[in-house]
Amino acid sequence: MRRAAALALTLLAACGTGEPIGSTPTPEGPYVVTAIDYHFHDAHPSLPIATDRPVVFKNVGRNPHNVTIPRLSYARELPVDAQLELEPISEPGRYAFYCTYHRDRKMYGVLVVV
């Protein structure tokens, strides 16, 4: 029994914090959405994002992308190995976004601001 408990603790420690990949475990830091090839990670929809928390889009894939958020009239290029920081969204709601280059591949997501 003790051995099983020790194994369980070891596995929990090895697995990390349990936070989704790309998100920041502390609410003070930015919420990170990662573009990987034809997918926005951590945005289907996002975890709740506070109105004073910035959002960062990072491109860690091998293709250039774009981030378009119609409700904010926001559209910016996101080259390979680059990142964009979006100022905090002050109005709660759901903010759909997409990559204009890969929308046909279902490269889109939703930011949930609370």
Give a written overview of the molecule:
It is a single chain. A hairpin with a 2-residue loop joins strand 1 and strand 2. The longest helix has 14 residues. This protein is mainly beta and 114 residues long. The strands form three sheets. It has a four-stranded mixed sheet with strand order 2-1-4-7, with no helix packed on it. Strands 3-9-8 form a three-stranded mixed sheet, with no helix packed on it. It has a two-stranded antiparallel sheet with strand order 5-6. It contains one helix and nine strands. The N terminus is likely disordered.
Assembly state here?
Answer: single chain
Strand order of the largest sheet: 2-1-4-7
**Average residue-wise pLDDT:** 83
Helix content: 10-25%
Order of helices and strands: HEEEEEEEEE
Write down the overall geometry. globular
How much of the sequence lies in strands comes to: 35-45%
Rg from Cα: 17 Å
Poorly predicted runs = 2-26
Distance from first to last alpha carbon: 44 Å
Summarize the biggest pleated sheet. 4 strands, mixed
Q: What's a quick, concise take on this entry?
A:
With 114 residues, the chain is mostly beta strands. The protein is built from one helix and nine strands.
Topology diagram in text:
Layout: H1 2-15, E1 31-36, E2 39-41, E3 48-49, E4 55-59, E5 65-69, E6 74-78, E7 83-86, E8 93-98, E9 108-113
